[in-house]
Specification:
transferase; transferase activity; CAT-like_dom_sf; 34% helix; Plant_acyltransferase; Benzyl alcohol O-benzoyltransferase; alpha/beta
């Protein structure tokens, strides 16, 4: 199983410097990978460590290498990649502060669920505010219908009587 995480280079690396006002993409994909059985046998912290390690490996040299590779071969075709799930945290992208002249935004995230490099298999962490103005995070999850139905059942079961961390992760992973 593969989990793709977007890692931004904004403000992290010195070369190449981004021109003032540049608004294009400045990220690379970090990939955490493990057999499904291994993920099920270990506590949730194991999977989190894999993601943390993958994101930590995105160095300035890695970013340059990705830029060179894409210039030579084009963008990768994620639709051919099986057992892959995309996680995108846009909570620090600044969408909630953008004003195009008609006031602050109500929402800043994907317009529809089947977007991104892996349509139908993605998760977006999006900043939001409730009616009282309290800040929070919306976790938008996109899965194929059958997997989403199973995920909802497992989540409802976990919320009714929370099992221990290892069992929780095993239930969620086996549901997917």
């Amino acid at each position: 199983m593969r989990m793709i995480c977007l890692v931004s280079m904004r403000g992290k690396f010195s070369y190449p410097p981004l021109p003032i006002g540049y608004y294009g993409n400045t990220f690379a994909f970090a990939v955490a990978e493990a057999p499904a059985g291994e993920l099920c046998r270990n506590p949730l912290g194991y999977a989190l460590d894999l993601v943390r390690k993958a994101k930590g490996e995105v160095t300035e040299e890695y970013m340059k290498s990705v830029a060179d590779l894409m210039a030579l071969t084009g963008r990768p075709d994620f639709l051919k990649t099986r057992w892959t799930y995309l996680v995108s945290d846009v909570t620090r992208a600044g969408f909630e502060t953008v004003d195009f002249g008609w006031g602050p935004p109500v929402y800043g995230g994907p317009a529809e669920p089947d977007v991104g490099p892996v349509p139908g298999l993605a998760n977006f962490c999006i900043p939001c505010k409730n009616k009282e103005g309290e800040a929070g995070i919306v976790l938008a999850i996109s899965l194929p219908t059958q997997a989403m139905e199973r995920f909802v059942k497992e989540l409802e079961s976990m919320l009714k009587s929370p099992p221990n961390e290892t069992k929780t992760f095993t239930h969620v992973m086996s549901a997917l």
